[in-house]
Amino acid sequence: MSGELLINVSPSETRVALIENGTLQEVHIERNLKRGIVGNIYLGKVIRVLPGMQAAFVDIGLDKAAFLHASDIRTKLITNNDTNEHEVPDIRTLVHEGQHIMVQVVKDPLGTKGARLTTDLTIASRYLVMMPNSNHAGVSQRIEDEQERARLKKIVVPYCDEQSGFIVRTVAEGAGEEELAHDAEFLRRVWKKVLERKQRKQTDLALYQDIYLACRIIRDFVGSGLERIRVDSRLTFDELIEFTDEFVPEIKPIIEYYPGERPIFDLFDVENEIQRALKRKVELKSGGSLIIDQTEAMTTVDINTGAFVGHRNLEETIFNTNIEATQAIARQLRLRNLGGIIIVDFIDMSNTEHQKRVLHSLDVAMAKDKVKYSISNFSSLGLVEMTRKRTRESLEHILCGECPVCDGRGNLKTVETVGFEILREIVRVNRAYDADKFIVYASPKVSESLNDDELHHLAELEMFIGKHIKVQTETMYSQEQFDVVMM
């Protein structure tokens, strides 16, 4: 796999595109006014405790109060000897209203929901994750070689004390003691600065903020087979060079400043791919398609065969379309950053072996995703339920807003429906008030319909109420908008 990062920087926005084998796979967008806050540490104030939900709302200086569950409050858990399960203490024994508490954001605010918090603080660097108020030493489970795990743990154990513990990150595999020691010292300096800000009771700003997008992406994608990183801002390029010099020097040689006249996101057709990622329908090369619908509760993916008829029989057509769809689904989930519950409605397959192969193909395609996911078996209704960890807004929620015409429904009332609503409104107003005649202001299509196709209905209503009705066009009105005025 060949990978490349394209970094597009403007004064108010940074965008990063991950290209794999010449195809856009991921888009990350950070706007200065709406910068993600996952990883930020705040000195928050408990404003409400909800015993029934085992949770509390915490003011961390955002528009919406953040959410802190009892299970996310670091404490010594009680063990039930009968079930060998941990019991979470009552939220009222952990926090109280008015209390100041140091918390970290684990999920950005999503839709109507506030940020999700934890008191189990962590600060990440290139090779290590520091855990303040813990003396634990651990190694990422993704490092599978037992000898390497033992070597890394032996190095990191001396760094741990009663004030802080460390976990070795996956990218540390093969790293030397000097690199790890440098990271540990850097994290201690960061934590010292956090404590200083806490002592000053800094509540209007974050005690700690994660590094900005361009540096964060480079840190997180190290070891992912990147061959080149191109950035179109000289200032950001210099900052990245400084950052890599200190933390990831092995990445420095592949960072390039892109001075080309052609916009960097026009390379690999990134701009058009982003526009296509905002559409419901995704065309498959075979002629089939995916229909992707994102809702507050879940995302649904429906697969259709379209014009693909196969070469042998219907079962072959269905199987091949489903196999092709697995690759497209995995890419679209990454590209659109869809998370939470995902329901996939594959085309029905009666062959159980085909079902197994489709699930395997989906799992293989999803394995390229750095985000944690899970895939269930086919249900009795032929559906596959997936989950994908969600920590930030989807591409659609970042780039789009609710339609002001349909109020987010995704469809409009027909011209005929609006016409009948107008006729009913005239009857209602006529019964409630004494008027000589009525003027209807409506959109061009609705006005045309009332004066043409529905003219006989209008004439019948005039005879019924015994009053004249005039229809007037308002070019600025949306299709569902109208006014009935008494004269």
UniProtKB/TrEMBL annotation:
Keywords: Cytoplasm, Endonuclease, Hydrolase, Magnesium, Metal-binding, Nuclease, RNA-binding, rRNA processing, rRNA-binding, tRNA processing, tRNA-binding. It holds the Pfam family RNase_E_G. Its cofactor is Mg(2+). It is found in: Cytoplasm. Residues 39-120 form the S1 motif domain. The keyword Cytoplasm applies. CDD domains: S1_RNase_E (cd04453). One of its GO terms (molecular function) is hydrolase activity. Gene3D superfamilies: Nucleic acid-binding proteins (2.40.50.140), Ribonuclease E, catalytic domain (3.40.1260.20). The keyword rRNA processing applies. Belongs to the RNase E/G family. RNase G subfamily. PANTHER family: RIBONUCLEASE (PTHR30001), RIBONUCLEASE G (PTHR30001:SF0). This is Ribonuclease G. It comes from Thalassotalea fonticola. The gene is rng.
